[in-house]
Design goal:
This protein has eight helices and nine strands. By secondary structure, it is of the alpha/beta class. Bound molecules: adenosine-5-diphosphoribose (APR).
Amino acid sequence: MPSHDPRRIVIFSGSGVSAESGLPTFRDSGGLWRQYAWEEVASPEGWRKHPGVVQAFYNERRHQAAEAQPNAAHRAIAELEKSFDVVVVTQNVDDLHERAGSTKVVHVHGELAFARGEHSGLRQRVGAAPIHMGQRCAQGSQLRPDIVWFGESVRHLEEARAYFSEAGRVLVVGTSLSVFPAASLVHAAPAAADKVVVAPELDSPPAGFDWMRGKATECVPQVVARWLREGAGASQGQPE
Ligand code: APR
């Protein structure tokens, strides 16, 4: 049994896949970490120091994400499911993949649509609604965004790594691959898999990946069309 299964596709996405839906990235010009200090709004220290500021930061992002619409890249990724077994591993906290129709989405950095008790860890869905100070979970713990902040443990990492290790095709889109351990997932992809990375800029494209230099809505539909044309037969990746 080859290590990779041509019917299995892993998509690994970052904020760049939602950029053309109007949601900000982090490190591009105009990105969130150019406007805010992540230590203040995306860390346990920031939460301890000024929880109201952190709530407001995520309430605004949750509102923006709810207003945004999936774009042609999200839709093309969802279309792959008609011919392949697809898992979307995303660093994004918006739900645009789900709203485009992807049915298996693994959020390694949490989700805006959920809150959790700061001490209980009890999760509850909030959808697009803001979370306020004084709002508590069923066990009386203050509700906080269900987001993985810097210094907190990334979610579903081993599950995600397993998906990469069995993939026959891997598409990385819209991530600078600069935040670990999530970025290390790309190294779990089999050498023989067909591996493509889509971004207009990349400091260091991952080894073994074909770099399509461009925007998600231009490049992702092209990769998807090629994979759908090839069908779930043997991937056209590098020989074993
Ligand atoms: N189409 C495709 N890629 C794009 C587009 C676009 N229209 N616009 C920007 N990009 C690319 C940029 O070139 C960059 O490579 O998206 C990437 C965005 O990188 P970052 O801003 O670093 O975002 P991301 O990689 O998702 O950050 C990872 O960092 O702060 C944490 O938790 C946060 O999940 C986030 C993680």
